[in-house]
């Protein structure tokens, strides 16, 4: 007689007959095995199939200890209520998740074993991990292209300005900035080479006013080519705002945001960059006079590969958001179809309680 056909389930269930209960348990997608202290009382069809896939064929007199010893290689007294095991039978591996539950049946305790064959789930998970790995490679490539394109655009802009320059001093200024941008590209390549040997990132004290001055100066060449301008002012007239940061990364965050504002600006438009200290925070606002972001797209801003620009990757704003978060700051976007977009970046002032 098959193990699952034993007459006594050993479970008193008011209102439900044993045959009905047996039918219900056999319809479950999980394996169910019920033991008392002497033997196995019930084994549903799914559990029998799982045992067969494991190459294990328990007899009717099989006890819980027998199964535990044969399948799990453990001793009789088990403290854990949950086990996971893998068994190789032939060319395939079977992965089973097992849960224990003890139920007071009145005159004796019954042990319920719930078996889940998770082999297929793990195979799917491996496939997903592989696909995610490929997706990460694609995202990394897109991110590299985006990060390199910004310095290239700046270098191109300054090259055009040098071509039209009439005095040596302006040429020297422009070539100095071009060298800085080439250094930034070199830093990016160096970071990629260090991926296999990740190192801790060092934060140092820096002046946010100086960082923004250099970013605005850098992007004014592109603004001129776009027939617009970038104006920077800070309302508190503080000569210096100390913050703890990675200057190159924070500079990249501001470049991405201000560059978006420049590209969105109309002919003759002005991108206003203002800075204000509020309590222990410094708030940098970047406001443009562009068309703003349509309402149906506002919830998508900051997502990878979403951009309202024809050839945009959508990575710039996402990268900026991540950098600001790494600096314990926030980045928020306010947009109006009539008044353009306003991006606010808040950062803790060094030495404050923020």
TrEMBL record:
Gene3D superfamilies: 1.10.287.130, Histidine kinase-like ATPase, C-terminal domain. Pfam families: HATPase_c, HisKA. Coiled coil: none annotated. Keywords: ATP-binding, Kinase, Nucleotide-binding, Phosphoprotein, Transferase, Two-component regulatory system. Residues 143-351 form the Histidine kinase domain. GO terms for molecular function: ATP binding; phosphorelay sensor kinase activity. It catalyses: ATP + protein L-histidine = ADP + protein N-phospho-L-histidine. Transmembrane segments: none annotated. Its EC number is 2.7.13.3. The keyword Nucleotide-binding applies. This is histidine kinase. It comes from Alicyclobacillus acidoterrestris (strain ATCC 49025 / DSM 3922 / CIP 106132 / NCIMB 13137 / GD3B).
